[in-house]
Amino acid sequence: MKPRVAFICVHNSCRSQMAEALGKLFASDVFESYSAGTETKPQINQDAVRIIKDLYGVDMNETQYSKLLTDIPEVDIVVKMGCNVVCPFLPSKYEEDWGLEDPTGKGDEEFIKTARKIEEKVKDLAKRIKNKEIKL
User: Which biological process, per GO, is one annotated for this protein (predicted)?
Assistant: First the structure.
């Protein structure tokens, strides 16, 4: 069975949503992607939606919504997006923090930079899972 990865931050509306979308796009053969937070937003950050659609042709509005940690199944790997505040806790066999700045309220360049960083990190995570570098 494929490991389940949860991308988490406080509000499940921007970075963790982008990571869920890119995880599904680039690593669905290696792991299942979920995202969640300790608080939800009525809708996903629309700048993030637009950028992911422009760059990757994926419409997050169609397939994703803001979820709480309790809304997702048990996971094997937790990836924290980078919280300057207290990061939510979710039990897992392995955890890492990507330390990404939240682009909310900034210009498109910041969203694009964040999306590209997430893409790189998702692919790297998939590679490490494949190579059994992460013990599950």
Answer: response to arsenic-containing substance
